[in-house]
Write a structure and sequence with these properties.
- The protein is mostly helical.
- Helix content is about 60%, strand content about 5%.
- It is built from 20 helices and four strands.
- The strands form two sheets. It has a two-stranded antiparallel sheet. A two-stranded antiparallel sheet has the order 3-4.
- A hairpin with a 2-residue loop joins strand 1 and strand 2.
- Helix 8 packs antiparallel against helix 11.
- It is elongated, with a radius of gyration of 31 Å.
- The protein starts with 15 loop residues before the first helix and ends with a helix.
- About 40% of the residues are buried.
Length: about 450
């Protein structure tokens, strides 16, 4: 077993079971790139400040970059005996370049080092997630532009309510995902602050230039308090909170895809490449991408709760409990990326059954409110027109017909004020196009909205 770099205080070697329990290398090894980038910037700053020689800084940089290259090529594999990625890299560096490698850790602790690595990793991954989320939203925008006059029912209580367009329906998710992008951008901005220089908890007596290192790493600033710099994991809670809300939105859309792709709705036909079949029933086409996304939403919720519970009772500053933050946030990142790629593909390739959407809008009395509004324009109070329209719907149900199929004589049985113009008033096109209010489903309102994005 490799000697620990902190072993000077101890007379006994770490028990193997404790070493295995304590080790985070199996999961934090994914941060090797960020650990090396942070160390390169730190060593360059140490040389700039005259804390170590430029010669040592050059050796450290060369050694670290060679380690990165060897990890990425597969030439160097992670040592299972190493305590974490930080110690593994430092031990490998010292083995390669000698005493210069031992000078790398001057002025820092693993406490501020791991906090930096986690933030850098989170920013890198969250930026990639932002790109994927933007791609999903852009895909919905393009589909919406092609469906400004694709009529479908809008629902309340999963009952057909009023006619809308498919573009208007997609606009709801475009808005949700837009808010998600805002939340993610805010989470990234709060994560992109450097804690390096906080030391174990109280900073250091070395004349570090923390701002210089942060700038070299592309970070927007440094933490203002060394205790908070070491102890803060709010950035992880921000990211998991964004992820939970986003996955909730994605799950709602998944639920509707599952419903709308069913034989009962037939609004969608999923592409074969984004569906699965049954081992027993040959006719089946299952919406597994949507179902898995719906299921994995609960997983992300669990990660958020795990983070909250882990952090809720910790005294300042660093505690080993905080090692648990890494696996939870890694799982959040992996789950989001794993869901977004196939989900985007499913959205882009599925066929929209416009005929079935319009048929459903026509068949569910979704124009009943417009009939009531028509009678209001004839001078009847809305509460009275609501009752008249309701009685007409009941009459249609009893006679197995729809409002637009009634004769004028049948209409007049319920109100003498109904004239021939009623048919235009309750047509799907009129029902939709007269809703010109901002946020409404008319093609003009939707065109203005989509052009504003």
């Amino acid at each position: 077993m490799a000697k620990k770099m902190w072993a000077g205080r101890f007379e006994k070697a770490t028990d193997k079971a404790v070493n295995d329990y304590n080790s985070s290398l199996p999961f934090d090894c994914r941060m090797y790139k960020q650990d090396i980038e942070g160390s390169v910037a730190h060593s360059a700053m140490l040389a700039k400040q005259g804390i170590i020689s430029q010669e040592d800084a050059d050796k450290i940089r060369e050694g670290l970059l060679s380690i990165m290259a060897d990890i990425e090529s597969g030439k160097l594999t992670f040592d299972s005996d190493a305590e974490d990625i930080h110690m593994f890299i430092e031990e490998e560096l010292t083995e390669r370049i000698g005493d210069a490698g031992k000078r790398l850790h001057t002025g820092r602790s693993r406490n501020d080092q791991v906090a930096l690595d986690q933030r850098l990793y989170a920013v890198d991954e969250a930026t990639e997630i932002m790109s994927l989320l933007g791609e999903l939203r852009d895909a919905l925008i393009e589909i919406a532009k092609d469906n400004l006059d694709t009529y479908m029912p809008g629902y309340t209580h999963l009952q057909r309510a009023q006619p809308i367009t498919y573009a208007h329906y997609l606009g709801a998710y475009i808005e949700m995902f837009g808010r998600d992008l805002d939340r993610l951008e805010q989470a990234i901005s709060r994560a992109n602050i450097s804690p390096l220089g906080s030391g174990a908890l109280a900073g250091t007596t070395y004349p570090l230039d923390r701002e210089w290192v942060a700038d070299k790493l592309g970070m927007s600033g440094v933490t203002a308090n060394s205790l908070d710099g070491v102890a803060d994991r709010d950035w992880a809670l921000d990211l998991a909170s964004f992820a939970s809300i986003f996955m909730m939105h994605l799950s709602r859309m998944s639920e509707e895809i599952i419903l709308y792709a069913s034989q009962e709705f037939k609004f969608y036909e999923l592409d074969d490449a984004y569906s699965t079949g049954s081992s027993m029933m040959p006719q089946k086409k299952n919406p597994d991408v949507a179902e898995l996304t719906r299921g994995k939403t609960g997983r992300v919720y669990g990660d958020l709760m795990s983070l909250l519970v882990t952090m809720k009772g910790l005294p300042l500053t660093y505690n080993k409990d905080m090692q648990e933050v890494q696996e939870a946030i890694f799982d959040v990142i992996d789950t989001l990326k794993g869901a977004l790629v196939p989900f985007i593909g499913m959205i882009k390739t599925m066929t929209i059954r416009k005929d079935n959407m319009e048929k459903a809008a026509l068949g569910g009395f979704t124009n009943a409110t417009d009939l009531a509004d028509y009678l209001v324009r004839k001078g009847i109070p809305f509460r009275s027109t609501h009752e008249i329209s309701g009685k007409l719907v009941h009459y249609c149900i009893a006679n197995n017909t729809t409002l637009e199929k009634l004769s004028l004589e049948q209409f007049k049985q319920f109100s003498d004020l109904i004239e021939e113009d009623v048919y235009d008033a309750i047509s799907l096109k009129t029902c939709v196009e007269k809703r010109l209010v901002t946020g409404g489903p008319s093609s003009k309102a939707m065109t203005d909205y989509l052009n504003s994005l």
